[in-house]
Amino acid sequence: MKKLFIAILLFITVSLIAPKFIGGIVETEYQSVLKKIAENPAITVNNSTFVRSWFGGKVTTDITVLLHHDDVDDINLIVEDTLSFGPVIFTDSGVKFALSYSQANINFKELSLDEEVADFINDKIHFTGLLTFSKDVVATIAIDKISKEVDGNNIVSSPALGEFVLENDNKIYGEFNWHGLSATTSEESFTIEKVSFTLDQTLIAGDYYQGNAISSGDFNFTVSSISANDAMGNEVLLLKELIIGAMSSVDNDLMKIAVNYSAQEMKSAGQHLKNANLELVFNRIDINVMQKVNALLASVSADGEAVLNENNMKKISPLVTELLASDPIVEIKDLSVETPEGKIESTLSMTIDKQVFDASNLMSIMAAVKADANGNAPMPFFAKLGLAPMIDMYVEQGLLLKKEQELSFKASFAQGQLNINGNMFPL
Length: 427
What we know:
It is a single chain. The chain contains 7 helices and 26 strands. β25 (417-420) and β26 (423-425) form a beta hairpin. It has helices spanning 2-38, 115-124, 287-303, 310-324, 365-368, 379-384, 388-397, and strands spanning 43-52, 56-65, 75-85, 88-91, 94-97, 100-109, 125-131, 137-143, 146-150, 153-157, 160-167, 171-178, 181-184, 188-192, 195-205, 214-230, 235-251, 254-268, 271-286, 329-339, 342-352, 369-378, 401-403, 406-414, 417-420, 423-425. α3 (287-303) runs antiparallel to α4 (310-324). The longest helix is centred in the first third of the chain and has 37 residues, at 2-38.
């Protein structure tokens, strides 16, 4: 019993004394992060103050997000972090063992926000951050349920919760889930069902804070369904299982990026389509050249220059030459959709001949492009839409081939010449 009492007493003593020393560590980490953020050309840290007490503190940071657009003002905001220092921290979501826990308020300066909108941001959206003992950052965003009625129009938005972890400044992962919303007016009803976003990326080059990161891994964005009905309950729009996904990997400094857009089912304007899909692949992209491209774009953004002005064009051409050295390739692996009359599908592969490209003339890239594409589709689908006369005209011109009720084409482009179905077409 005596040993247990001593252990408890020791724990209480450490818990009371440790926050004083941990506060100094947390302040150092905050200053380090702000220094990194300040190096981002799209962000200006105007000032920051860190007020530290024994068990906690408060950080106020004045930030400007530079948009470099004549018609859109830069975004000025003040972030206020209320901190609690570890090692033991009591929060609304339970006991945390960490260096610090923060709750943030974001206030927009010089932005004419409706008072209700400003209150919504502060009352309904909650930002928290946890700095772990390994100095990883766990960021959480929670959005409360919202139910509102205005002039007989009702909207209900379900709660949302996201948690993302920045691990060792070189890996970021997490997920965001929202259970959707429903809106009803006298004329229509609209529903978005479950939305989710997941991310798992590992840094390869650059820096997450500075906005020039190149990373490998995946992200996925899904929407369970979007639907709309008219006042009589008739279905006007339906989109099911919308997915946007990307996967990137690196081998010998060459990156491959595969991007996929798909929808399981689509209904609109009398059309009922299934399994729409677009699969894009960018392969053999030199990450060292991409770092140089990022640096150029960052400097242009910082100076507010037009990207394609004469001075920048001279800088871009040598980078294009370097990028082409690894023989990059762009492919549309699958562009397809299933119709009641049959499947429409096509593919494309494109490269650029580095021997043809002239760095002194950026427009020579058009002559250097080499591409091959093919596709097919059911004729009845277009006939149903009243497009049969136009399709017949394309068949006569040799742009399409028709065999019974099936349409197809095969095209290639090289040395500035377009060949469709074995026929040359001047450009």
